[in-house]
Amino acid sequence: MRSGDSVRTLGVVGTGAIGVSWVVLGLQHGLDVVAWDPADGAEERLRAQVPEGGLRFADGLEEVGAAADLVLESGPERLDVKREIFAALDEAAPADVLLTSSSSGLMPSTFQDACAHHPERVLVAHPFNPPHLVPLVEVVGGAATKPEAIEAALDTLRHLGKRPIHIRREVPGHVANRLQAALWREAYHLVDQGIVSVADIDTAIADGPGLRWSLLGPFATQHLSGGPGGLGHVLEHLGPPMVEWWDDLGHPELTAGLVEKLVDGVDEEFDGTSAEDLVARRDQALRRLLEIKTDLGLG
């Protein structure tokens, strides 16, 4: 499988928010990028966001597959669409070219069998938005994926400055999204029950545990909170009450009423703040945070 510095041309299928960010990442690392998206005006929108050289907009999927050393697919989160895309890419791409999907929750076994030639090189490489800044990528193989494909994906992503993790068994939503979903479930429940506001939930995480989690993960953070006894001390003394909290966690239904309450809460929290401006400041802060983590050996 082509990997690491043998990847010279990056293929990007789908040029929405994730696809554009993949394009930026490739160009930042000096790769040629060939991209394709069937939507009307997609090329114009992409070039307006990425006015750099080294970018070619293809006429179709087959051109991307034939030209790329690595393909990153970021199309709609629909299984029927994924199967069509990967069947076409598999037809066009050389056998040693990895075909990866950015799917946030679909399992690769559900679409790699649409590839008649080389399903063994198909896997999920799920990034976090925006991929050109956030280091995490979840690598998930399917039933037909060969270990060599997994290793090639991990190697290439590290070469591109990412922090990939290998998800060893397929589960819906992979890992990070499942962790997020667990938090969101309780957050929605607390808002639904009138216990706290949407804005205060955001404050509770952004100005509380989220600060520590952005530096060290939940296990490492919990270990440090245990003093000399570490995680063992924490689980011995705080484990039993934590189990009681688990039993008390909510199971909200995403009703129209709850959706309205959540949306209204976010609107109130933003209070006219420009989302575009907030995204720009968030990305600036992400860059600074990543620099600090690197300088301190935490990244």
Overall pLDDT: 96
Q: Structural class given helices, strands, pairing?
A: alpha/beta
CATH class of the largest domain: Alpha Beta
The H/E string reads: EHEHEHEHEHEEHEHHHHHHH
Strand arrangement within the widest β-sheet reads: 3-2-1-4-5-6-7-8
Give the CATH H-level superfamily of the largest domain. Answer: NAD(P)-binding Rossmann-like Domain
Fraction of residues in β-strands: 5-15%
Rg (CA only) = 21 Å
Instruction: Please give the share of residues in helix.
Output: 40-55%
* Number of separate structural domains: 2
Task: Report the major sheet.
Answer: 8 strands, mixed
Tell me what the CATH architecture of the largest domain is: 3-Layer(aba) Sandwich
The general outline is globular
CATH topology of the largest domain, which one? Rossmann fold
Number of helices: 13
Number of strands: 8
Query: Segments where pLDDT lies below 50 for 5+ residues?
Result: none
N- and C-termini, Cα separation:
28 Å
